[in-house]
Amino acid sequence: MAEFFYGTKLSEQGGIQTYHKPWYDSAIITEVAACALVERRAFYAVMRWKNEKDADFGEWQVAVYRLSWGGAGGTITYKDQVESMGPCETTCTAHVLDVADRLIPHPPLSDEVRAEIARLREEERSGQTYAEREAIRKRIHALDPLQTARQWREACRAHLAQRQQTRTIRHGDRVRFPQPVRFGSGETLDTFIVSKQGNTVRFLHPDHPERHYRKGAGWNAPVFKPGMQNPGPRRGRC
């Protein structure tokens, strides 16, 4: 996938891949320290580039490409961003994130700054006008210029943790969500039985396993403890 964006691969040394792509009367030279194509929906790369006429490369950055694949013709369309632009796809791999942390480290925030940012975000949510909210965003940015990139990496790490947790949950286990889920019928549940068929995960009603649900966007990550394991096979329709 890197060749699609960056051109012909020239070399690889010390884990750094170098690419060459003609650009008008010159060419772009790109170095890639890590990259990953995730589920054909997003491509991530820790990269830096320069015009071949220039002596020095620019700074390392994390590029995020949202992909869309065409029909029989195989046409690919994409939207390119960097991690500091947001909002971006948050399915980046651990390897790419680790390389980004090494080459583009984000200095840790003090507890005082984190507390002030949290207070400002709460104030932003209650802002009455666009001008008020924009003024608060500028204050947050002044406290942490890297806030958007920092939040993106944190969201990617959280996504990886959730996927890992899902892998450890077995078919028939009981899970509890930290926040109850309210359904259109008016019923509220926080505990479900897991039904896994391949990569498909559904959640069964604990008392009526014939009722099954798919995890929605409003659901938080489930919490699983061995002590909550289902005592017996209660399989429902998948």
From TrEMBL:
Residues 214-238 are annotated as: Disordered. Keywords: Plasmid. Pfam families: DUF6927. Residues 147-214 form the DUF6927 domain. InterPro entries: DUF6927. It comes from the Bacteria. This is DUF6927 domain-containing protein. It comes from Deinococcus wulumuqiensis.
